[in-house]
Amino acid sequence: MSASRNGGGGPYLLGIDYGTESCRAGVFDTNGRPLASEATTYKLTHPRPGWAEQDPDEWWSALVRSVRAVMERAEVSADAIAGLSVDATTCTVVALDASGRHLRPAILWMDVRAADQARRIGESDHPARKYNGGGPVSAEWLPSKLLWLKEREHDTYHQAKHLVEATDWATFRLTGRLTANVNTAAVRGYHDRDAGGWPTGFYEEIGLEDVFEKLPPDVLDLGTPVEGLSKQAAEELGLKADTPVAQGGGDAWVGQIGLNVVEPGKMALITGSSHVLIGQTDHATSGEGFFGAYTDAVIPGQYTVEGGQVSTGSVLKWFKDYFCKEYMPDAERRGLSVYDVLNERIEDLRPGSDGLIVLEYWQGNRTPYTDPLARGMMWGFSLHHSPLHVYRAIQEGICYGTAHILRAMHDAGFDVREFVAAGGFTKSRQLMQMHADASGVPIAFTEVGDAVILGGAVLSATGAGLFSSIGEAAAAMVHETDTIEPDATRHDEYQFFVDAYCETYPQMRELVHRVTQKVAEHEPVEA
Q1: How many CB atoms lie within 10 A of CB 447?
Q2: Is residue 220 within 8 Å of residue 246, measured between CB atoms?
Q3: Whole-structure pTM over 0.70, yes or no?
Q4: Residue 54 — left, alpha, or beta (φ > 0 → left; ψ -120 to 50 → alpha)?
Q5: Which residues pair with 207 in a beta bridge?
Q6: How far apart are CA 191 and CA 195, in angstroms?
Q7: Paired residues of 277 in beta bridges
Q8: Percent helix, strand, coil in the chain (nearest 5)?
Q9: Fewer CB within 10 Å of terminal CB in the chain, N or C?
Q10: DSSP letters along 88-105, please?
Q11: Which residues neighbour 229 within 8 Å (Cβ) at sequence distance 6 or greater?
């Protein structure tokens, strides 16, 4: 995001995002116009296969550098900042002692060391399991990691005064008040206000009966004022003490707010290495093939549904890196990306890639199967097919996967009238048109590409009292630019191939599992 040298008196809002690789901070005005943004990276370590950890001290140092840099770049004074809010990855767990210091590195969202704990938790038939959509429990989710700590790092678990999500750690460091945000509590911890809050019976059943002594006592809605910025934090960040800090949440859901997907009927389509689909409903909709509906997770009185594709952009990158070197000279000569050149070459191929079907499960399937043993596949080859057919078929397979998730939601009574898109795929109108055609759903775009830090600014404005609700703030600060409508003829043509895509994996699942497990027996184990 480029800086806009303004330097006026405000009010301005700070949105802060703790991602997997960096801490980003952005300054916005009350119309959602960005003044500047900055990012500071930190290390990600993998002590063992399947593990992923980070040092919270590096998080804080990155936050200080990003905030100080963005304030300087935006040329606004500390007095002009009306509020701030911070989000982070979900299922990133921090164990704190009585003084608020972490006892060990944070266990990151992508860490799957708790696979055995997740399997055992998944054997429960407690009503709280509705959030899993009838499928397995992920090793990423909060209870899985908490149970791993209790069973495998017994001393850490019992020494921990508090066990918190990364968002809540960050809010605590900013304010000195320990809270839990309802977003991550619901979407990854089974918190359900309709059923009384934390499902104590479920946690007792899985062996975490004592965990409530360690979870933050107050569960706050997004955008709720937490406390003013503490004097110590203000001095380190170069901000004004007592600046209102609003409760933040998980990064994808704050991005949903930054797309103004805060009412039923819309769905955020957040694209990149993976796809995340998140939408709102006015009733508790649960069913097979998607996650949710999470109670009050984004907007009080509403429910949130979620779907996701583990590997989307990452599969296109894999194909580009390994099979498309012949297109690089043309791309370099014309100042284009290889993706641009490939997209030009496939424009005249018919929908369905002449019968080639790709399942994009290179890293497993998040929904509708929640199957870590799933793997990608391509079928329908003939000697007529070229690498360009494969490239287009991968794109189409990604779009079919999105349509498959929508079918699962439709079967449970949730329908989408409009996508609002963000992320890397929005750079290609051709690819977004393909999404619209395969799903039959229009796709809208917004002015600010970085929906996550804009969403943080929306929460900041709400917490500072500049708007009466998240919905009012999002309406004022998020602006749609244009919309892609699905082509009715291509949509009808695509339905045959979406059907074929959906029918493939159930017939191949048993064989894929056998092969995946056989390969795993021969994988080298890190010392």
Answers
A1: 14
A2: no
A3: yes
A4: beta
A5: none
A6: 8
A7: 269, 307
A8: 40, 20, 35
A9: C
A10: E-TT-EEEE-TTS-BSS-
A11: 84, 174, 175, 237, 239, 240, 241, 242, 243, 244, 245
Q: Which residues contact 36 (CB under 8 A, 6 or more apart)?
A: 1, 2, 3, 4, 26, 27, 70, 73, 74
Q: What is the pLDDT of residue 526?
A: 44
Q: Which residues contact 19 (CB under 8 A, 6 or more apart)?
A: 89, 251, 452
Q: In the chain, how long is the greatest CA-to-CA distance?
A: 69
Alpha carbon 504 to chain centroid, angstroms: 27
pLDDT at 240: 98
Distance CA 264, CA 165 (A): 27
SS3 for 498?
helix
- The parts of the chain modelled with pLDDT lower than 50 are 1-7, 525-527
Radius of gyration of the chain (CA): 23
Distance, in Å, from the CA atom of 41 to the CA atom of 59, rounded to the nearest integer, reads 9
Q: How many Å apart are CA 408 and CA 308, to the nearest integer?
A: 12
CA distance 457 to 474: 9
Q: List phi, psi (to 5°) of 54.
A: -145, 160
Instruction: Count other C-beta atoms under 10 Å from residue 261's C-beta.
Output: 31
For the stretch 22-31, pLDDT in tens is 999 999 999 9
Strands 81-88 and 291-295 come out as unpaired
Dihedral of CA atoms 181, 272, 414, 477 in degrees, nearest 10, equals 60
Give me the pLDDT at residue 371, please.
Answer: 86
Helices (H) and strands (E) in the chain, counts: 17, 21
Q: Count Cβ neighbours within 10 Å for each residue of 190-222 and write b for 16 or more, e otherwise.
A: bbbbebeebbeebbebbbbeebeebbbeebbbb
CA terminus-to-terminus distance, the chain: 42
Specify the pLDDT at position 136: 86
**DSSP string covering 411-445, please?**
HTT---SEEEEEEGGGG-HHHHHHHHHHHT--EEE
Q: Are 261 and 420 in contact (CB under 8 A)?
A: yes
Q: Comparing C-alpha atoms, which of 205, 230, 253, 102 is closest to residue 163?
A: 102
Amino acid at 441: V
Each residue's pLDDT tens digit, 284-300? 999 999 998 999 999 99
